[in-house]
Every structure is written in structure tokens, then in C-alpha cells.
Amino acid sequence: MPPLRNTGADRNAEQPEYAGDYRLQACLGAGGMGVVHLAASASGLRLAVKVVHARYAEDPEFRARFRQEVAAARRVSGAFTAPVVDADPDAVRPWMATLYVPGPTLADQVKRNGPLAPAELRRLTAGLAEALRDIHRAGVVHRDLKPSNVLLTDTGPKVIDFGISRPVDSDLHTETGKLIGSPPFMAPEQFQRPREVGPAADVFALGSVLVHAATGHGPFDSDSPYIVAYQVVHDEPDLTGVPAELAPLVARCLAKEPGERPTPAQIMSALLPPSYAAEAFIPAQRRRPALPHGEERAHDEPGPTPAWDADTPVRAPAPAPPRRGPRLGRVRLRPRLTLAVAAALALTGAGLYAAMSPPAGGGSEPPARPDEVATAFTGWHTTLQMHGPTAAPACTHGGGALYCAARGVGLARLDPVTGKVVWSLTGPVEAESPVAPFLLADGLVGAAAPADPLRAYAAADGAPGWAAGPVKPPELYVPAGSAVVLTDGRGGVRAVGSQDGKELWRHGLDGFQAPRPGPYDAPSGLLTVSETSADGTHTRVAEIRPRTGEQAWQRNMPGDLDPLGRTGDGALLLASRYQASLFDRLVVLDPGRGSVRELPLPHRLDVRGVAVRGAVVHILEADGHLTAFDTAAPKGRVLWELETGAGNVSTPVTGPGDRLYFSVQDGRLLAVDTVRGALIGQTRPRLLNGRLEYAPLVPPPVVAGDRVFGTAPDGSVFAVDARDPASW
């Protein structure tokens, strides 16, 4: 599936490669406000660069808020925070660069290794109290202290993300009508009296953070932010599991009235004399027994704390719910709906394609053989030959085999049950992003490195078959049933038979000067082609019969449109481009009836890829924000949204059992429940030599029966059990 076209002249037109003069090397994470990238200064300093989401960059109020964040971060010293190195809040995409601070967040540490030991907890308490004292002395109230905003380093804890902080002397802290923060770590006055929020609110948050660090859950715990809000205001905190020597101090921090809470200096005094002799915090690693050779380690499940964003609005609590409410499922409330999407990877390198779920009785891949759907499945991973910079292999499945291409490996066949390499062929080492192979007719598999001719090989042993080329300029190709359609970007269009590679036809298409191939619909046997005018005001869309090149229909439509594929009822779905990778509406075209419906999106989305199941479009943005959008509703509607926290991701793909999967550039594979909109599993990162480098394209995972196959920048291909993502 191809990447988005870059139609802008600016180098930040799509997911930016630069912030100012800093080249963004890799995505470190994403949140409600922006994406954090790894970068380096001219002198070699490693930086963490936060780039604001495109959808917020046009909001004057948000820009003011980001300027406030930059100012607040600059006011505090770097002893307990990440120092600001550079920033430009007035850029097209506002950004801020801070010194990169290596170390896990407290949230990740507790999630992966469990609650902290008493001595570690005491050191954390002292370190955070010192940090708050420093922050408050600078006249800043953080207002969003939580485990994910605390970095654990060998020089002590660091407090980060001043996105909703306010200087004490600023008028902005008296704003009304917006209660922003993370409910489990908000003080009662943040719900009741937002005008009166001061330094004591950070102390209350410190108490909640310490309970989480000591027990793995917060003092007020529920999946509903409304119930949490009520508990914070009315109920006593649950301190079960907090060490006895620290419980009284934590209880004082969690006092309902701000005046009853200790100051950071008083907390530090209460900890004297120090029992830890000024040792720095070094995250302890829980040891695990070794696994048999070839078996995959199960990834830790997410912790119980709901991952609400700092800018999640929460109303004042309603009266009298029970102390512990029922588990209502995660509620994600945002001032503006935000959608999540994934990076598009393609066979052809043109246009934006949707990952389509095969309709009943349709699809190009045959159903899984009985021996492929085993009752018990053991995960595996296999490393293919790798050379040069990192690049994850790209794979496809069919006919009972897994076929992959990697740097230095033009094509390899793997046994999907064991991961054993059946055969492999040498390929170019200079290719930046491997191109996924694809199935052809009569036991053939097709493969091509970028700019190389398309070639067919015998699936059984990799013996060379036919070759469609060479042709210059390089062609884009799309497998389309019994044919492969190739375009050269200059108006030349042709098709070859997938069985023998013989040319079926070669001619231009009426009404088109340089058509680009789009998705192929197996049930109808039609291939979409499109061409947008030079000024971007209209797009010509048609569907052709791949064996003959004959047009089934053609239509000239307003706007810069990218075909996504067909919905479950046979309608053609297109995305309307506002600029570069930003889309503002979906267009549903019924070719048979000629009817057109325009469905406005809640705001402009920085779309990287989509997956369609029936009438529902799952949109994955560049920052890893995922949204389910129902196109069957008269004006469209958002079913759910999910902040995955992943950046630089693959195209999402759907699978059996209401599941959706996508890959991340660090080698993780994520699974989402498409009914609830919940993250239900993820694998561990797999990096080459532990390095996280920028990946221009991330190959999507492959779903086959009860297995999901992922790839990673360490050159590996791995398999996990699709039936139990929580065990990954």
C-alpha cells in the first residue's frame, strides 16, 4: 500500500523531517498535544523535539498555550527537568527542543517491573519534592504531574511536559470553562475551583504518583473519569500497599484542602535524615527465567491506570455515585475529536490505499489451510540477512507460505508455522525500504526492488520466471487478479499477464494524461485509477478492467481526492486532501447509481493510512491516533478514538475477531479491539543494535488465520498468536 503523496514544496509538508534546522531522526512518543522526536544539534547534543499536531497549529488559543509551555519550561532550571535548547512557537508546526534525557518513565517502569521497593520509593519521593520545590520557586505550577511525566534517570527523577502549566503571575491560570488534566492525578480544587489552582495541586498529584509507584494503581481508581473525579473530591484515598513509614506523609499530600498539604520543602524535611545516602535512582530490572530456544517472550500488559491525556476535559463530579463504580470501559473525552492513523506502505509507491477486509467469498488470498490454524501456536522470530542502516523486512502471506523481502534479501520464503527459511534470493543492499512480494497465478510470486523490473519466481523453490521490463522511467505496479497493471507516471499504461508476464495491452486512458493506479477490488474485478489537476481543484477518477484496459466508468470530481477502496456495500471511498497529508472529508461514490455523499471529518487529519471494514473506516494519523469513522451514517460519525502513543507507524490491517493491527518503527506490533476501541496487546521493541533510527516507511503486519506476522528494524520476522494479544 503506497505512501501519501507529498504535494507541498515545504520540507515540513507531510510528517515533518525537520523542526527548524533539526532533522527529526525517530519518534519517541506521542500525546494529546504533539509528537516527540529524537534529534541532534549541530554540536551533537541529543535532543527531544516536541512538534505540535497539525490540527492544533491553526488554533490561536492552542498556540498561546504552547507559548506558555515553552515559557514555563524555560523558567525552571535543568536540574530536575529537561532543559529547553531551542523553540519556535510561531512556526507553521510549532516545536520545542529540550535536552534528551535517557531513562524510562515512571509509568513504564511500574508497568514493566511492578511497584518500586521501599528504598526506591523513598528516593523518588525526595527527588520529586526537590523538583517541585525548584518548579514552584520559578513561579510555575505544573498542574499535570503524573507517572508518564516523570523520567527515571541515573541522576534522579526529572519532571517533563509543562503543557498545561501556568506561571503563578499569569492571567491564563484563571481561565474558566475548561478543566484540563489527568483525572487520577488531579487535585479536588482542579474540579471545584479551577481559578484557585496553585502549587498545592502539584503536591496532591505527587501523593497520587507515589501511590501509583508503590502499588501499581492510583489512590482513586476507576475506568470512568467521572467516578474518579467524584472520588477525588469526596472519598478517602486507598493507600493499601503503601509502605507504613511513608503512608502518613502520602496521606497528608492527599488532603482535600490545599492548606492542609505539606510544601515540597516540608516533604523533604520529613524524609530526613536520608536513609539512601544521596544515591541516584537506578531502575531495577525484574529478572525472568529463560525461555526455550525460539519461543517469544510475552510482553507486559498495560497497567491499570487509564491513560487519559492532559487535555482531557472533565466536568465537575455529579453527586453520590458509589465508592467503587462498575467497570464502564474507557471513556475518552476531548475538546476536539482527534483521530489516529498509521503510515502507508505500498507495493507501488503512489496514492493512499486502504487496507481492506476481504468480503465474504471474495479476496485474492485463499483461506488458510487446516494445518495453518493450529489449536496451539508457539511464537517464533527469524532474522533475515541485513546490511547497512536499519530497515524492516516487508512480507505477504498466501498459499500456505510467508514471503518476505529485506535489505540484501530480494525474496525469501518462510514456513509460517516454524519461521524456518525455506529458500532465499540475494537482493540489493542499498534499497532504503524493501517492497513487499505478492502472489501471482499458478504458483508464482512476484517481487521487485525499487526502480527494478518486476520479476516472477517459482513459489516452490524460487526459480526465476518471467520479467516485466526493464522500462524507464521506473514503473509503478499493482497486482490485479490475473493481470499486473504498470504505469510510468508519464501517461504510459500497460498490463502483463500474471501467469506468463506477456503484455496484454499498452495504451493511454481516455481523459488521463498521467493516471496513478489505485486499489484493486477483487469482487468486481476493477482497478481504480485517478489523476488530480495541477491546481488541485478537481480529480478524474475511473475504474478499468485490468485484462483489457477498458474503462468501466469515469467521473470528474471536485477536490484533490485519493481513492481508498470499496466499502462493504460496494461504494468507492475517497479521501479529500486539504494539503499534503491533511484530509478534511471523505467522499462516498456509488458507481452504479452515480450518487455522491460528502462526509466532513471533525477537523483536518494528518492521515498516514486507513483500513476499511464494511462501512467503518479506521483512520491512523501520523501521531498514532486511531479513529473509527462510520460512513453509513448520513453525515458520518466517529464511533471511537484511541491514542496509541505510537509514532511513525504502518498502515493498519484488520483481522478476524474484530481486531486491527499495525506496526511501529521500533519493531512493536500493536493490536486493537475495533468494537471497544481499546489497545489489547503489543509486542516488545526489536531494534538493530539497540538503535532507533528514522524509518521512511514501516511495513504493515500480515494476518493469516490465527497468526499475525510482524517485522522489525533488527531484520527479523516474527509471529504471534492472534487469539491472545494480551500475551504478546
From TrEMBL:
Signal peptide: none annotated. Residues 291-328 are annotated as: Disordered. This is PQQ-binding-like beta-propeller repeat protein. Gene3D superfamilies: 2.40.10.480, Phosphorylase Kinase, domain 1, Transferase(Phosphotransferase) domain 1, YVTN repeat-like/Quinoprotein amine dehydrogenase. InterPro entries: Kinase-like_dom_sf, PQQ_rpt_dom, Prot_kinase_dom, Protein_kinase_ATP_BS, Quinoprotein_ADH-like_sf, Ser/Thr_kinase_AS, WD40/YVTN_repeat-like_dom_sf. Residues 293-302 have a biased composition (Basic and acidic residues). It holds the Pfam family Pkinase. Residues 22-282 form the Protein kinase domain. It comes from Streptomyces flavochromogenes. The keyword Transmembrane helix does not apply. ATP binds at residue 50. Keywords: ATP-binding, Kinase, Nucleotide-binding, Transferase. The keyword Kinase applies. PROSITE patterns: PROTEIN_KINASE_ATP, PROTEIN_KINASE_DOM, PROTEIN_KINASE_ST.
